[in-house]
Amino acid sequence: MRQLLWWLIGGSRGGRNRLRIVRTLEERPMNTNQLSNELDLNYKTVQHHLEVLEENNIVTTQGDDYGKLYFLTDRMTHNLDILEEVVEQTDIDTNET
């Protein structure tokens, strides 16, 4: 999991946005539109990052189409401490716009 999070968060240009998505979903499930509004990101950008996170078993979904909600997987929830280690070591600032 550590290597995966380094690749998804610490080692890619989209890592900061993926981290913001994970942290937002940690608080409550949301659909793509809600995430787009909450994070002030383009809908297609959020959609792309969600696809990457889903392919890598970081998020899972319930529902269909626009009502599809995204949740953190149990695997991700159990490894949030590793995520925080990666964040600390990469010095990603999620408060920047």
Automatic annotation (TrEMBL):
Gene3D superfamilies: Winged helix-like DNA-binding domain superfamily/Winged helix DNA-binding domain (1.10.10.10). InterPro entries: ArsR-like_HTH (IPR011991), HTH_ArsR_DNA-bd_dom (IPR001845), WH-like_DNA-bd_sf (IPR036388), WH_DNA-bd_sf (IPR036390). Residues 1-94 form the HTH arsR-type domain. Pfam families: HTH_5 (PF01022). PANTHER family: TRANSCRIPTIONAL REGULATORY PROTEIN. This is ArsR/SmtB family transcription factor. It comes from Halorubrum trueperi. The lineage of its organism: Archaea, Methanobacteriati, Methanobacteriota, Stenosarchaea group, Halobacteria.
